[in-house]
């Protein structure tokens, strides 16, 4: 049964920009989706948050509420915000969110951002429904980090309206958004998407629809190249990481970063690219990566990958 939960407090106001966006739809309230919904609501947008089941809705809303409270509390503690103002900000942010299991509620949205798991079969069904529901002026966006925007544009039947809006984790803190266009994207839709991204206090960069866009296209082969280096016995994971931190000025070495991202995620991305582009030498899957994932050693999330972890930090 479809459900709708509304959060309302006195004084909450909607917001619109010159891009013509006042209502933002977010599909999926997981790791990325809840952050996108929070970022939009905090900037004054009305948000329609959609999940498949009530339990996912409630989990996502709790994540948003906890995150807003944590960030606001820190601002109050540092004297950057009065407590009364902070309390009002928390309440007004949550008041702007309408949470529902009814995808028909997306009909009112000016931009829709899909943030469900990276499964094309699932997305095919979802985008078919989105294409039937949304209005002609709506920006249809995917937060995918590795899948083809053009393929999903075909699923929804509205290629002129389809773009990629790739946010980075944690959305609440990370400034970058990759705005991805296809050959069929309407330039006006693309320009509005860039403006919308800026309104969230993000820095958008333009990109064409290519595997991994900018960041992951460079980052994932870098991570797997480090694994291959270790496999060849050139250096240990620790020495590879130390070399890149001290020699290249990176805050985290590639082996630790792969662990942090999740080795299963790395394998899913590079494996998918290798299948789609078998002649691309940069898309080689390290055997050590396959072995770690097969053994359930996925990195930070399981406590061990190429490194051992204590929560979000490397174990001593």
Give structural notes.
- The protein is of the alpha/beta class.
- It folds into two domains: 4-208, Rossmann fold; 215-314, N-(1-d-carboxylethyl)-l-norvaline Dehydrogenase, domain 2 (Orthogonal Bundle), CATH 1.10.1040.
- It has eleven helices and eleven strands.
- It has helices at 33-42, 54-77, 83-95, 120-133, 149-156, 187-199, 215-231, 237-248, 254-261, 263-276, 287-294; strands at 4-6, 23-27, 46-50, 97-100, 111-114, 139-142, 162-167, 176-181, 203-208, 309-310, 313-314.
- Helix 6 links the parallel strand 8 (176-181) and strand 9 (203-208).
- Helix 10 (263-276) packs across helix 11.
- The longest helix is centred in the N-terminal third of the chain and has 24 residues, at 54-77.
- The radius of gyration is 21 Å and the shape is globular.
- One of its GO terms (biological process) is fatty acid beta-oxidation.
């Amino acid at each position: 049964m479809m459900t709708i939960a509304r959060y309302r407090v006195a004084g909450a106001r909607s917001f619109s920009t010159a891009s013509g966006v006042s209502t933002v739809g977010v599909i999926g309230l997981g790791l990325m989706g809840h952050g996108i919904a929070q970022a939009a609501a905090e900037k004054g947008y009305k948000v329609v948050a959609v999940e498949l089941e009530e339990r996912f809705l409630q989990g996502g809303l709790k994540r948003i509420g906890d995150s807003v409270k944590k960030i606001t509390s820190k601002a109050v503690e540092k004297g950057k915000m009065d407590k009364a103002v902070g309390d009002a900000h928390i309440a007004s942010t949550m008041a702007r969110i309408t949470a529902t299991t009814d995808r028909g509620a997306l009909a009112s949205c000016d931009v829709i951002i899909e943030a469900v798991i990276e499964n094309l079969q699932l997305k095919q069904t979802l985008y078919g429904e989105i294409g039937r529901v949304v209005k002609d002026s709506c920006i249809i966006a995917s937060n995918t980090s590795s899948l083809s925007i053009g393929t999903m544009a075909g699923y929804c039947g509205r290629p002129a309206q389809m773009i990629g809006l790739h946010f980075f984790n944690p959305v609440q803190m990370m400034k970058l958004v990759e705005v991805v266009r296809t050959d069929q994207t309407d330039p006006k839709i693309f320009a509005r998407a860039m403006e919308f991204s800026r309104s969230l206090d993000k820095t958008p960069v333009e990109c064409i629809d290519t595997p991994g866009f900018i960041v992951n296209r460079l980052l994932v082969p870098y991570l797997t190249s480090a694994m291959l280096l270790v496999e060849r016995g050139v250096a240990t994971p620790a020495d590879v990481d130390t070399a890149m931190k001290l020699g290249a000025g990176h805050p985290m070495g590639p082996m630790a970063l792969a662990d942090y991202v999740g080795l299963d995620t790395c394998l899913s991305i590079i494996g998918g690219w290798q299948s789609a582009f078998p002649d691309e030498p940069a898309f080689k899957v390290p055997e050590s990566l396959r072995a770690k994932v097969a053994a359930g050693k996925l990195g930070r999330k399981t406590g061990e990958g190429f490194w051992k972890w204590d929560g979000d930090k490397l174990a001593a």
